[in-house]
Design goal:
This is Dienelactone hydrolase domain-containing protein. The chain is of the alpha/beta class. It is built from six helices and ten strands. Helix 4 packs across helix 5. The longest helix is centred in the N-terminal third of the chain and has 22 residues.
Amino acid sequence: MFLSRFLLASAALLLATAVLAADAPGETKGTALEPSPDNLALTWARANLVLPATLMGGRRWEGHAEDAPDVVGIAPLVVVMHGSSGVAPAIKDYQVWLADELGAASVAPDSLAIPDRLTYTSPVDVATYERVHALRLAELENALKAVRDWSWVDRFRVVLAGTSEGAVAVARYAGKDAAARLIYSWSCEDNYFVTAPRLGIGPKEPVLNAISARDPYFSAANPWNKDRAVTGSCAAALKDDPKAEVLVIDADVHTILNRPEVRERTASFLRGVLNP
């Protein structure tokens, strides 16, 4: 009896500690979130560029956008918007996979190239998140303008891809010049991360949303979403789009764009868009 009570008391203490930790305010470092011309130029210059072997005479090329080589040929391009951790190894691995598996070039603007760029440990106030989202959207729009200088880009096969923080920019972009959108690890709905979804997706745009069923940030499993009707995917937002697909995987991890089942679905989706 004593052991049972002890175990119950311990479980209650752990639960209370978890709830308090979940409700504890996060932290920010740095201050810069201004989408100035200089800042946007830096995010583009230091963007991670990966060119497939088909453009490079048989050998894949990786480097910064400012060092992009002259190439002959034409290829689809994926503009990749990274999450809050920047151009992390997962982003670079994803770009290499796009090149090797699909023959697609990709470029990932580097938001953290901005000096003193504000970074955060969630949760922080939604006004700060929205300033971040405004910067990321400006980075995406700047990248789409910059790629016009690359003659090898197939203008009809430009795809937008984003994960987590970067997925918000991809989902909110209101332009009609993208062949498709890939929205990883965000749910296109009202949650702690935004004041409102404010999606810019057209009614018949090809969209793939992939997210974990128990995503630690954007599912109902996160107590930060407790006062909102969170479903945990873009299904409701995209229900009237005949070209939209939603993949909810049985997992509780946040970064999923390189998981085998997500790569398989992404490849199938992109082949349908890029090679109809």
